[in-house]
User: What shape does this take?
Amino acid sequence: MIRCTMTALLLAGALVPTGCDEGDAVLLDDDADTSADTAADSTTDEGGGADADADAGSEAAGGPWDLSFSGVGFSFHNGNRIEAAVIDAGDGTTVARSAATVTAGAFEFAWPGVLAAGHDFRVDYYIDYNRSGSCEPPPADHGWTMVVPAFVDDVSLTVTHSATFYAGVCASFPRTAFDLTLSGIGFGFHDGQTMNAALVDLADGSVVDRLVATVAAGAFELAWPGELQAGRDYRVDYYADYNGNGTCDAPPADHGWTVDVPPFSDDVTLGVTHSTTFFSGVCASF
Ligand SMILES: [Ca+2]
Ligand SMILES: [Ca+2]
Assistant: This one.
């Protein structure tokens, strides 16, 4: 495996390889066949009988190859979350997406076997500078893009921090987690009682998380930040501890309800009002 260092000179809009001498064929397919090596290129390069690079012909396997991606000089972002995605430049699909934390000015990602022969790739990456948990266009977050050079072997890229951001970076990081808020009004009958709520995953009925609030002035609000996962379905079971014994008792000893979370592609706020139609099975979630 040959490691060359690519430095992104984004200010200049150019990619300049460093640390690669002429003998390193990792960046370019130097034989006479067209474009990338393939499995059909199974024996020797037409150019001279032997591979020009140092991997003794293993490139004939045709990949897929590994991509590692690291950054240095990011001390400004120590403690920030960084997310990176490997994008197939041909059809725009995301072939890998990973997150890490910037530590001691550095980060590193390793994606084994993502570099398929005959495809072109880039790495989009952003730092969650505003600590929102999701990607917002620069400069709220800091984001960049890096072209993976032509490859016939594993590739290791290293980038340094730049103040020239890639405005479109967030297109590669659609949100996958959303906030849920349950907001109740008209519960004055239960003022001073605890309101207990459970977020339930409908696929298997499992409780994702439980929260408790105290009803005051007829109202309560419970929030689950980032706990709704895209593509899943949920409901919220909730009860007021009407008999005040600290546990859930089937209605009407306690008053309990359930509400479905509607299909979502953004944060969800569920508004509920008091009802005397109870959910008899509410205690199964507590
Ligand atoms: Ca953010
Ligand atoms: Ca109770």
Remarks:
- The CA atoms of residues 13 and 233 lie 44 Å apart.
- The radius of gyration is 27 Å.
- Residues 177-285 form a domain with the Immunoglobulin-like fold (CATH 2.60.40.180).
- The pocket of calcium ion (ligand 1) is lined by residues 128, 130, 132, 134-136, 141 (CB under 6 Å).
